[in-house]
């Protein structure tokens, strides 16, 4: 974030303070609440959870959405733990250390995979991140990659809050190939976070309680069957030709269909020609041919 909004005159300010100053200058009508602390400590974590539960626009009401823009896995796991315990929807985002890829992820506790359901290797192996950082070496940084990922995140936020378009559960960005992979991940029933497993059970109960909707198959409506120009749509292939060009449909698992079938090979119906045996030898036949 420091590459996106820090300005020379803000030297010495923390990230959150500099962010507030910059954003307040852009839009002074927005309300900002700044807390400059480490959310992974016990005391600060409790205050962080309290602001999620009671820090909405109406004091005492929960917030609508948490956005994670942190730069380490420990803080991500703290946000994940808090949101799982509170059942709070949040969006996680990040840029890789080589600065040429990033991602965003929508996490709905119980419905989609949380950050602990499929953790990165560093988290799964319980490796201390600090041991991976080399002294005097800073991770690569490209404001362009960060700007793209930030834009994708905010676009997803708008679609989620304003209920339009398709909200992505996971959307990646590979700057080297301009590749945007997308997917949705189901929660892990054996997730290490007990609150995640609890939220999964609650979500299953909600799904069971929902009224079952019967699938109604609508008939295709014929559009413009009659027209004043007398135009008719006539198939160039007869029913017999269509039948002959299709083959048997193989037995497939439910939900899988074939785009086309291969017709059976028809044997060439060429009449067989037989020659009667005259009883003459080859020498006699050759002698006849010479006299002709």
From TrEMBL:
GO terms for biological process: protein ufmylation. Gene3D superfamilies: NAD(P)-binding Rossmann-like Domain. GO terms for molecular function: ATP binding; metal ion binding; UFM1 activating enzyme activity. Residues 2-192 form the THIF-type NAD/FAD binding fold domain. One of its GO terms (cellular component) is cytosol. Keywords: ATP-binding, Metal-binding, Nucleotide-binding, Ubl conjugation pathway, Zinc. It comes from the Eukaryota. The keyword Transmembrane does not apply. It holds the Pfam family ThiF. The keyword Nucleotide-binding applies. Belongs to the ubiquitin-activating E1 family. UBA5 subfamily. This is Ubiquitin-like modifier-activating enzyme 5. The gene is Uba5.
């Amino acid at each position: 974030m420091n590459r996106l909004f820090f300005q020379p005159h803000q030297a010495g300010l923390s990230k959150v303070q500099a962010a507030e100053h910059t954003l307040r200058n852009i839009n002074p009508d927005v309300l900002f609440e700044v807390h400059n602390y480490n959310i992974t400590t016990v005391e600060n974590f409790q205050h962080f959870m309290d602001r999620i539960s009671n820090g909405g626009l109406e004091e005492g009401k929960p917030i609508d959405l948490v956005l994670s823009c942190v730069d380490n896995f420990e803080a991500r796991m703290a946000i994940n733990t808090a949101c799982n315990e509170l059942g709070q929807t949040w969006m996680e985002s990040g840029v890789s250390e080589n600065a040429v890829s990033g991602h965003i992820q929508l996490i709905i506790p119980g419905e989609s995979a949380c950050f602990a359901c499929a953790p990165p290797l560093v988290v799964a192996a319980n490796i201390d991140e600090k041991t991976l950082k080399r002294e005097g070496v800073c991770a690569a940084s490209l404001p362009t990659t960060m700007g793209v990922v930030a834009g994708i995140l905010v676009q997803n936020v708008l679609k989620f809050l304003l209920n339009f378009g398709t909200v992505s559960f996971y959307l990646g960005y590979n700057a080297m190939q301009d590749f945007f992979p997308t997917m949705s991940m189901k929660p892990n029933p054996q997730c290490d976070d007990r609150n995640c497993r609890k939220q999964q059970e609650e979500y299953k109960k909600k799904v069971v309680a929902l009224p079952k909707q019967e699938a109604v198959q609508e008939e295709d409506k014929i559009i413009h069957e009659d027209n004043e120009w007398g135009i008719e749509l006539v198939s160039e292939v007869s029913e017999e030709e269509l039948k002959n060009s299709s083959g048997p449909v193989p037995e497939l698992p439910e939900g899988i269909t074939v785009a086309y079938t291969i017709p059976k090979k028809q044997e060439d119906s060429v009449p067989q020609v037989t020659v009667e045996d005259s009883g003459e030898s080859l020498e006699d036949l050759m002698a006849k041919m010479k006299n002709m």
